[in-house]
Amino acid sequence: MATQVSPVHNRPAHVLTPAEQRAAYDQDGYLVFRELLDATELAGVRQRFLHFAVKMRRAAVRRRNA
Predict the structure, then answer these.
(1) DSSP string spanning the chain?
(2) Where does residue 12 rank: exposed (0-12), middle (13-18), buried (19+ CB within 10 A)?
(3) 15-33 b/e with 16+ CB inside 10 Å = b?
(4) pLDDT tens per residue across span 27-60
(5) Distance (Å, whole) CA 54 – CA 32
(6) The whole model's pTM is what?
(7) 16, 8 in Cβ contact below 8 A?
(8) C-alpha dihedral, 10 to 13 to 19 to 22, nearest 10°
(9) For residue 2, what pLDDT band results from cuts at 50, 70 and 90?
(10) 32 in the Ramachandran plot: left (φ > 0), alpha (ψ -120 to 50) or beta?
(11) Residue 5 backbone phi and psi in degrees, to 5
(12) Per-domain residue ranges for the chain?
């Protein structure tokens, strides 16, 4: 079964009207904000995410081995 993506997601969310944003969110459950973060901000988010993922993985291993 093919997944259909809202045609509004071909346009950055910041150029959509509030009504279009709401309709896209109601249909798809997410909005796309391209270029919301610059490269430095995105690198920080990725680093924190990876740190969190490693921490959660270690906790899961400890629970499994307990």
Answers:
(1) -PPP--GGGGS-GGGS-HHHHHHHHHHHS----TTSS-HHHHHHHHHHHHHHHHHHHHHHHHHHH-
(2) middle
(3) ebeeeebeebeeeeeebbe
(4) 988 888 878 899 999 999 999 999 999 999 999 9
(5) 26
(6) 0.53
(7) yes
(8) 90
(9) very low
(10) beta
(11) -105, 140
(12) 7-65
Q: Which long-range contacts (CB under 8 A, 24 or more apart) does 20-24 make?
A: none
Cα separation of the two ends of the chain: 41
Distance CA 35, CA 16 (A): 15
Residues in the chain: 66
